[in-house]
Fold each of these.
Amino acid sequence: MLILVTGATGKVGATLINDILQDPQWRDVRIRALCHNRVPPQHERIEIARGDIADAATVERAMSGVTHVVHLATCKEVPETVMDVAVKGLFWLLDAFRRSPSAQQFILIGGDAGIGHFFYEHDGPVTEAQPHMAYPGCYALSKVLEEVMLTQFGIQYGINACCLRAPWIMEKDDFRYTLSFGDDVFGGPDWKSMVPPDIATKCRANGTVPLLRDAHGRPLKRNFVHVTDLTRAILMALDNPATKNRLYNISMDEPVDYGVVAAHLKATRGLPSIDIPSGYHSNWLDNTRAKYELGWRPTYDTVRMIDAAFTYQRAADDPRKVWYPG
């Protein structure tokens, strides 16, 4: 098995590659990492394909002899490059895949941005049958186009493809920084912009956490997944015949409730909270299909996500870097 991994140096790609290299089940697997700038650490089972994913010739070379593709490369709110990476890049990958005599399975990591995240209200749990509903911005649109393109290649050419749709992916101390009122906030909302400047300053000083409320005034529920739960799902889908032309929600069993976050941090760390009103909507990704068909179960719930992030201690050679804002 030769797996082409795009986005190999991101949080998901790096974790996935490490999982494969460490697990005896995958000891015969070789990895080819398609890299534009950063490259993974050297290893006898890793080879590097360098170049731009938007370049057809680069992708054609990278696909040579590949049996499986795990497509992780993405681009956030960068209008100048998002369509090159997310649309053109995926097209070249799928086109090379469907013509390849060795290709066996294509796995795309999608995102809940394609179904609106917390921008739109739903009347129940969000299943895989939910129509696409991109929120404003180029990133959400790109996630819709990715999923649609993958589906159409399955229809047009009968390729063996599946999509694992993930919400916001957390690792290490990420979740702690999603709650920051400082410039070090990870992703959004940007809490300091939602309160007066003097209040933001006090919140930073006191370690205050936001208790985000939805459009109905209730503590907002928002979907997350830990990177290790996602990479386990990828490996459970890899070479699994049940996944052909299937879409799976890969998320925690229950969304993170900002009210629970505030209460837990108050009880365990004495941190105060502040109500933040919003027009956002609570939502709940239903992961039943992945549990039923893949036998997958998430190991992180809200409390474990909080405690892991707040107790994580970074090594001196592991500075916090955010390659993308969310």
Amino acid sequence: MTTAPPAPDPARAKAPGRTQAPAPDPIAELAAAHDLTLSGARPSLPRYIAQLWSRRHFVTAYATARMHAQYSEASLGQVWHLATPLLNAAVYYFIFGMVMHASHGVPDYLPFLITGVFVWDFVGSCVNAATRSVQGNLGLVRALHFPRASLPLSTVVQLFQQLLVTMGALIVLLLAFGQTPTLHWLFVFPTLLLMAGFCAGCAMIMARVGAKSPDVSQLMPFVLRTWMYASGVMWNIDTMLKTDDLPSWVAEALKLNPAAVFIDLMRFALIDTYKASQLPHHVWLIALGWALVVGVGGFIFFWKAEEEYGRG
């Protein structure tokens, strides 16, 4: 004789299409009650900006310490901050100015070349150094909790401090080559500001890329060398476009090249034969666009991966 199965308990029966709610986690409730969050979790963008601003003194101090330590073992020490771009300019003048005759048709070629080298040295160094800013500080990233954007930004601050020193030397050199100070020299300050914003965005983009793919740092010297040649450091892009039959899209790309735009702004501000008043107004709009789009976009791009840095 078989017995009927026990009737289901109505209190425990599930309604069709509904799932049983999970039991509350007492640890999660305790953490929420005391405003505790997951270690390494990405904060909201406004909170992240606030955290970064609260550590601005760390960013500047870290940048200054790295600047002083960079050539601490060299006999000439900090003199190399100035000697490096000057030696580059001397090499480029010999190869491009004298051997390849890139100076033909370019007035005030030495001031033209030196200005381009000093500006490019800042842009290229920011991109190159920032590629390793996170990957090269994994010990710091894994040991301490702080906004990781501090690392690429401190790299830009360090190089900007060096740029200010070399800009003083550039002014002296331009005066020695017969350039006359005018009110147009004041355009140097907005140019430096826009260039710093653009380089900060580039630094944060490359810091995230370099943290994800460390091998990228091995490719950067080749990428930066190509970018430098396309930026008119050693020759005048407008003169080259008039003599070479290039496709229209190549000509437009060269003119919109951000490094070339910032170099042009600096040359038109400082060199007598490149009057700032003769510079088309849209060039300033292009520079502003690059600074805003790359600066803001690079910051958001880096913030999106805040939880990933230091893992693995």
